[in-house]
Amino acid sequence: MAKSEETFFSKLFSSLFQSSDPEAKKKKKLRAIAKDLSKTKYHFYKNDEVLPQMAKLFYEIYKAVFPAQVMFNSIENPNALKYMVVNYALSEQQHQIAESLTKESIQAKAQGVPIEQLTQAVQTQLGNFLSAFDAEHISQIDLTYRNLLIFKSFCTYDFFFFLKKFDSTLREGEFNSIPKFEKINAEYIAEDLKDFVTVAKPVIEVADWSSLMKLFKTAKGSEPINPTVWNKITVKLRSIISTQTFDLMLKLITKNPDYYTEYSLTEEPIVDAYLDKIKQEAENTLTQLQTAQKNSQIDNYLNQIFGTTDVVRLRNYTDSASAPFERKNLGKFLYAGPINYYKAFLLDYIKKDLREFADLVLIRGTWSNQSLSSPMSNAYNALLESTEKINKFDENIAEDGEIGIKLKTHLPRAERDRDARGIISTLLNDINEEAKTICIDATKNLVAIAKVLKPLMEDYAKPKGDLIINWRELDKFADHPIKQLGTDVYKHIYLFVSLMQNCFTQK
Q1: For the segment 389-410, what is each residue's pLDDT rounded down to a tens digit?
Q2: Exposure string (b/e) for 327-336, b if CB count within 10 Å is 16 or more?
């Protein structure tokens, strides 16, 4: 019989009498896998048991990586490694710029530089710093960090837990005595081996570890593992993994001939987050300095106008009354300061000094052209009418007020009820808008009066007035010298308008 005919009939008989039982097919595959495993030079497994040779290999790796394991486990800040990688990649000039953009550096410069000039300088430095990170530079930094995570995952693998299954007397971190490893049932380490393969396979994908070791040398003063020893470990891992020894073992241990260890490489861009942190710290520091300057200016204006910085004249729309809403992150009374300042100014100056001056020039004054008095008259009357608006506004927020009842009703439910939160948010927004409108309208009216006041004082100084023709007659009715009274009113209006501008610029 020809050889080809013999092969044909052999295959034919084989196909006719071959078992179709899935279990039988699986066993046949497993036998073939066991045969393949026996041909590798790494004899870690035999007859459903893992041999001491494998424990010895893991023990040598454990000894080598233990200092790195201790180092990584001691790092509490999860972002520390990211910053270490980015800082290592910075040039000397970039380091200097980054240092100049820290909170401490900016605050120190603020002692001798005007805030506007400092802001411009910081923004220029920040722009130069950010522009230095091109795509290639960022890609290299991200790659270094990826390799660092691979190294960290491998070094922090729980070798001790794995090895203690081979020698129960083993002590963590002690390498003075030689362990007595025994063979064990392979099922005991199935999950541990799976975990190890997921951290070992990425290691062999890194072609060059020298740059990472240089990073540790620069940042930490020494490498967490001897580079020569680490290279030997990677060579050994590459050899074992290339023979599929671990995968073949796991197929047999799990009795799954199709088992394959899945793993992934962590790709986490870190440069953007680092740059955002630098940018946010610089910008936040500038904002804090600007706010502090604004607060200082506001306090200065309050002291000049009222002689104190504690100016509260409303009962309900105040910073203290805003606290319950702030504690629940519902919002706040945004304009409690400005509207209380205005209420105080209304009572202390508008209804006293300004009223005295207005009564003189608007009621007793004879204007050369009556239309010239209209802007001041309209603005003054609007200021007086705002008294009722403020009082009604504040009364509505009281606990028994129209809005206050709604706030009191929904506040207890706000933490657990989305609708209640929405209602309070809407109410607070409406309240704040009304307070803002009152303050802005008042400021506009005061500006309108100031625009008339200044030429009036200049007109008063003339031998014969062009705007008001009976100044000398008005002197007889004045309780205070008109020039001094008008100058004081103008000064306080100027201070108050400046106060409002600072308050609303800060908002």
Answers
A1: 999 999 999 999 999 999 999 9
A2: eeebbbbbbb
